[in-house]
Amino acid sequence: MTQVVAADRPPAVTSRPRRGRSLRARKRWTVLLFLSPWIIGFVVFILYPMVSSLYFSFTKYDLLGQPQWVGLANYQAMFTRDSMFWISVRNTFWVVLIMVPIDVVFGMGVAWILTRPRRGSSVYRTIYYLPAMVPTVAAALGFLFVLSPDGPVNSILAHLGVPANKVPLWFADPTWAKPSLLLLSMWAIGNTMIIFLAAMLDVPTHLYEAAEIEGAGGWAKFRHITLPTISPVIFFSLVIGVIYGFQYFTEAYVVSTSSAAGEQGASSALGNPENSLMFYGTWLYQQGFSYFHMGYASAMAWVLFLVIMVCTFVLVRTSGRWVHYGGAIR
Amino acid sequence: MWGTNNGRRALIAAAVLTVGLTACTAGGGTASSPTTLNPTASQPPTTINVWGAFQGREAKIVQASLDALHVKYPWLTATYVPSKTDADIAKAIASGTPPDVVMVQSPDNVAKFCSTGAWQDLTPYLSAAKLDKTKIFPPAALSYTSYQDDQCSLPVLTDAFGLYYNKDLLARAGYTSPPKTYSELSAMAKKLTQRSSDGTIDVAGFVPTLGKMYEINNLYYGKWSDAAWYDSAGKSVVNTDPNWKSLLEWDKSLTDWYGYDNLTRWYAPFADNEWDAGNAFEQGKVAMMMDGEWRTAFFAADGSNVNYGTAPFPVPDNMKSRYGVGMIGGTVAGIPRGAKNGAASWLVLQDLTMNTKTLNALADDLKNVPSTYAALKATTLGQDPKFKVFMDIFQNPNSGFKQLSPQGQADVDLFAQFIAQWQQGKVSDLQQGLDDVAQQIDDLQNVG
Fold first, then answer.
1. CA dihedral A159, A160, A165, A166 (to 10 degrees)
2. Domain A78-321 is in which class?
3. What's the mean pLDDT in A233-252?
4. Other CB atoms within 10 A of residue A241 CB
5. Do B166 and B190 have their domain in common?
6. Do A165 and B274 make contact, defined as CB atoms within 8 angstroms?
7. B332, B158 in Cβ contact below 8 A?
8. B327 contact A CB<8A
């Protein structure tokens, strides 16, 4: 009976799916095996820290003891009681709304100028790109020297007849501190400039020729041909710039901690002079690593993450109105 | 089916995550129970890592002291690891891999280290060694090394703050001695100030303004004004202690006399020169300033020819009897939670904090004030009358650090931000501002 039953069972019907399933499983495991370095890296270095920081953001956690659940207290304190939080937000928006657009326009302008020379263009491009190769910390320290109250720039201004009591104090003056950082970022514009330059050199010349035949001048050609063609690069620079702007840290940290000018007498020099350089990232750092307010710092990190997400989403959603991809697949 | 399997998976994931989060927070094991050992007897070779913020020349000095300990006890090797911040130490303790001995350069976080048990209470070690801390350390040093009877750290040298004055500038203005009260300080500062024809400051008499003189922030720890930070319940009293208001009103009147913007422009060229010969005091650009005892060594190293004297910093006019008091604070050392070699760690800590020879070798090199009675008695630093002033300030019974708080330096920073706003003229109602800042300091206890 057993044999009959066994003989009656159509072997092909039972073995095929089994072989197919095992093949699929083997494929799945092979894919997983090849993906595993990334998966492990993602889980260990991104997912776990993110989930941990989300949990810590609802706790009072000083690194030294156990986290104590405080619910939304960190978030409430941030928005209602922390005056420095709002100062840091204001300074960070200055970076995002003023520094980033100026950098993009400046990078675009420099790139456009660099498309003009008929001879020696590679030399000019190298010269303009070189500052971008200087490490950020070194560049910030260099600017601290150049823009020091009795530094080379002020010496030149004095020679030009600017009275000693009128020369800017740059990083020592809260009014001039952020514009000084802007000068630093414009000086190191090479990376932005180089992608604009590549995009501009990629604009088909026949479009310009056609426009010229139609009588278009320089501005009209730039407005109606160059700008639309390089709009994907403008969009890219804006998105990257906004994300970078919200996370602005290194230059402000180096300038504040390396210059005693304007120090508030606080135990930490971050934000000096007079909190004009206290950005979101520096305040978050101070909360976490000077005050050991890891829960609060985690809450700040999550708010920053959400704000960046929203801003990037808005930029992406509105890009359809002004970014032209020239028929390429988006 | 989806609900069942995925629900189970989600539950397992949540459980794993919770266990993971719990396991990965504030690790570090338990405090080592104090054991004693006979260092002169044969012991297995032991290496002790000492973490601290000293670097460069200062790190070499500490290592030399540790090397001397190795000569004394060949089985014990102590290695100094430089450039370690409070945050580095906290991370090492939290991860369960702490060093054996830790040193931090300021007492700001002592209350945090004590109250969380991150640094072990040293009382059992002191008891086991039959040591009476009150007979070893002056009260000023003990004021910043313990919190709520938890003696989790001990001092390694200390700093004392007082007044430096330029004798030539004072003599030129007709003064033969430094000021002893705030009103004398104000009057002398005004007379000593020299302005250019356009009204800008050429030489400042004395600058009380936060951020406009190198070490003036120490004035706002409140020691000279006997101003309190907290009441016995741990609530901020910066708004109710009248001494704060008096101090802030005094400093504002002097700041206004100079003009805040004038001070900004005067200070800017010297701001980055605190640690070199371009120092405003060395350049004769300020007649009097608050500073620590170590500045005497810097002036000597710079080969400065400024003719200066030192004295205790003035006190409020209604507190003349407190003259001689000062702000004290310095490096503290302890044994972290989870340290594996408790007895050997204690031996190293004891040497760093109580061995007169070690302390005075460090004090001579660093030009800091020795932190024990024995070392104070034995040191030759006091032969310099300029330095002796600071040794006396240290031993004044009213001297000390500010009241410690588990908030670390956050309360000082909050208050400093407010004072800066006040001095800039951005606070219209001082009492209201003090009420706000007191509330913010209290709020620190609920978040973090």
1. -150
2. mainly alpha
3. 97
4. 20
5. yes
6. no
7. no
8. no
